[in-house]
Every structure is written in C-alpha cells, then in structure tokens.
Amino acid sequence: MHEIRLLILDDHSLFRESLSRYLRSTEGLRVVGECTTVEEAIAALSRTEADLILLDYDLGAEQGLCLLEELRKRKSTARVLVVTAGMPDTATRLALEAGASGVFLKHSKLDQLIHAIHRVAEGEIWLDRALVRALVAPTKLASHSHEQVRPLTPRQSDVMRGILDGLTNKEIALKVHSSESSVKAVIQELFHKAGVRTRSQLVRIAIEKHSSDWLRLQAEEPDTLGNRF
User: Fold this and answer.
1) Where is 139: in which H helix or E strand?
2) Entry pTM
C-alpha cells in the first residue's frame, strides 16, 4: 500500500512538531518535511515529493493561502488540506476555489484528522459542518438569488445529503432504503445536473454557486463529527 507523503506548513513550532510526531507514528503516513513559511515549503517541494500538504491559514507574517497560487504556477499535483484554528468565510471559499481540498479545524480530534487525510488523498473534499453552514448562510445567498439551479427531486436530495455526510454509496443505500446501483444512478443524475464528473467537483460547484437548493439541507442537519466529501 502506498504511503501518503505529508508536508506540514505551520509557523507554531509546538503544534507542528507535536503533529509531526503523531503522524510519523501512524501507519500509512510519512512526513517528508516540516516548514514555517511558504518559501520553505516551495523549497522543500523542489527537493522531495508530497502527496498532501497540511497548510496553516495564518502563518503570522503571511497567509498560508499564498502557497496555493505557487502550487498552481508550478503545476504541482500535491493536494492541500488547510489545518487552521479558524478563518473567515471568504477565505474558506477562496481556498476551495483556488484548489484546496478542504479545511480541517484544529480543535477537532486527531483521529478525525487521519480520516480527513485519507479522504483528501483519495481525491475527496473535507469540510467541517460549521464551515458549510457559514458558507450557505441566508445573507450570503441573497446576492446570488439571480442564479438558477434546477431543483432536486426528493430522492436526489436524500442522496445529496448522504454525500454531504461523507457516506459511501453502500451507506447511502442503507440510509435511503434503496439499492447501491440505484444510488449510483442518482449520483450520475446529480453529476449531470451540476455538469461535473466527481463528488469533489459536485461539492465545489455547489459552494461556488452558493445554491440553497443544493446545500440548504446541510444546514438543517444536526452536528456530526465532521463532513467528508
């Protein structure tokens, strides 16, 4: 099994070093570098390959999101999971639109981080439920009321909720009392409506369009341990 190669970019030495020790002791993960600035991270990536970068949003003198533009310029294939104590809603949206694969809040449990790392490494998106609620707050939807999105059918809404909850096709099928093949068919319908080909793209376009028809159901659900897309 391929190890997930991790690069940590965080200017808080205690957090960075503690996280590094924890990740190094976790099977299937390998820390290939620890950095405190975007410049150090770029230099590290020129010497070694990383599958996933754990990026702090606030690096003191600079914003971690500056790294996303540098990665784009260099056509890097490394995925980015922003690991932060908190960030503005606009920054969360900009991070996703710039190519970040998710945002993980530092107050969450370490085992959740491991799960998030694996999901992001597989090409999916991770967002804390609180962040999703903030992104689709009514005040943020108002300015985009002119955008039209074809409404979802009840079954499509059920499956979309399962996707937002990070469930597998099999788990969604059990939840909606249907077959796995039927769930796959509904997901293809969702892809067609959104004009995308993957779950990650489905979530991204929903966030970018701020569509209440696509995402308001997320805000109506009770809190869980986290969202995996």
Assistant:
1) helix 138-141
2) 0.67
CA–CA–CA angle 156, 123, 79 (5° rounding): 140
- Number of Cα atoms under 13 Å in the Cβ half of residue 51: 16
Summarize the confidence of residues 190-204 as an average pLDDT. Answer: 77
Whole-angstrom Cα distance, residue 131 to residue 212?
15
Residue 65's Cα: distance from chain center in Å? 14
Domain that holds residue 217: 146-228
- 77 within 8 A of 99, measured Cβ to Cβ: no
Nearest to 11 by CA among 52, 54, 46, 73: 54
Mean per-residue pLDDT for 26-44?
94
The helix or strand, by DSSP H or E, that contains position 203, with its residue range, turns out to be helix 199-209
The tokens for 100 are: 């970040």
Instruction: Using pLDDT thresholds of 50, 70 and 90, give the confidence band for residue 89.
Output: confident
CB 52 within 8 A of CB 78: yes
Q: Are residues 68 and 170 in the same domain?
A: no
One domain for residues 10 and 100: yes
* Residue 5, phi then psi, degrees to nearest 5: -90, 125
Cα 9 to Cα 56: distance, rounded to the nearest angstrom: 6
Task: Say which range, 93-107, 111-125, 191-205, has the weakest mean pLDDT.
Answer: 191-205
